[in-house]
Amino acid sequence: IYGIFYLAIFILILSGVYSANFKPAATCFDNKLNQNEEEVDCGGPCESCEIRSLQLPQALRPVSVLKLSSGKAVLLAEVVNPNANYAATPVSYRFQIYNRTNSLIETIEGEEKIFPLEKRYLYEFISTREDISRVVLEFFNPQWTKEDLNVSLSVTELETVVEGQKISAKGLVKNNSPFVTREVNAIAVIFDKFGFELFASQATIGGLRGFEEKSFAVFFPSDPELVQKIDERATKVFFMPE
User: Fold this and answer.
1) In Å, how far are 25, 161, 184, 185, 206 from 217, measured between CA atoms?
2) Which of 87, 102, 190, 201 could form an S-S bond across to 147 if both were Cys, CB 3.0 to 4.6 Å?
3) CA of residue 125 relative to chain centroid, distance
C-alpha cells in the first residue's frame, strides 16, 4: 500500500515536471479544441470564430492596365468586401506586375478601408515601361471592425469637359447619409466609343458632413489619343470615403 502511494506521488511529480517543461503549450494554431475555445483554434482566448470565418476582399475581374501614348500607365481594379457586417479597416493589398516572359517586374503595395459589401476601385500609377502580360492582386493583414451602416455617396450633374488636349470630369457629390466623412477620393474613368476603358484619374475632394453636397473636378493628363478616342457621355465616377 505504501509503495503504491509513493509511486502515485512520484508519477504526479513527473507529470508536473513534463507539463511545465516539455509538453507544448496550447496555442490558437495547434488544430486542437482546448483552452476553452468555442471551436478549434477560435473563440475563448483566441480570435473570435466570427472573425475567423470572414473572407478577404477580392477582385471582381482582372486588373486593367490603362496606358497613355507617353508611356505612363495606371492600374485599375474593381474589388468588393464580401462580408455583410465587417469593414476592413484597413486591409493591405499588393499588385504584382509581370512582363511577357512571366518575370516579376514591379510590386506596388498599399492599404484601403473597404466597408461591408462595398464595391470600390483601387487605383495606382505604375513606373515600368515594359510590356505587361498580367497583374496579380492580393489582399493580406486585414483589420476587421464591425459596422452595420455605411456612408452613401452619389454623383449628379456629371459632365466630361474636353478643352484642347485637356480632359476633366466635373459634377456634384452628395453624402446621402448622416455620417461625416473625413476625406473623399474620386476616381474618374473615361471610355472610348466601343465601351472600353481608356484611362483613369483620381482627385481628393475633402470631407463631407452628413447630407452635404459639394462640387468636384478630376483632371486627366494631356494626351492626344485620349481626346480622339473618348466618348464624353460614358464617363463614370466612383467615390471612396475614408
Assistant:
1) 58, 10, 12, 11, 12
2) 87
3) 16
- What does the block give as the cell for 17? 515536471
Q: How far is CA 63 from CA 138, 152, 155, in A?
A: 11, 25, 24
Residue position matching grid coordinates 474620386: 186
CB-based contact 237:187 (threshold 8 Å): yes
Mean of pLDDT values over 122-130: 89
Instruction: Specify the pTM.
Output: 0.77
The string of pLDDT tens digits covering residues 48-81 is 888 888 999 999 999 999 998 888 899 999 999 9
Q: Which amino acid, one-letter code, is at 23? A: K
Helix ranges, the chain (H): 2-21, 49-52, 224-229
Amino acid at 55: Q
Among 242, 159, 176, 158, smallest CA distance to 213 is for 176
CA distance 6 to 157: 90
The C-alpha atoms of residue 229 and residue 193 are separated, in whole angstroms, by 7
DSSP string, 48-70: -HHHHTPPPPEESSPPEEEE-TT
**Range 75-114 burial, b when 16+ CB lie within 10 A, else e:** bbbbbebebeebbbbbbebebbbbeeeeeebbebeeebbb
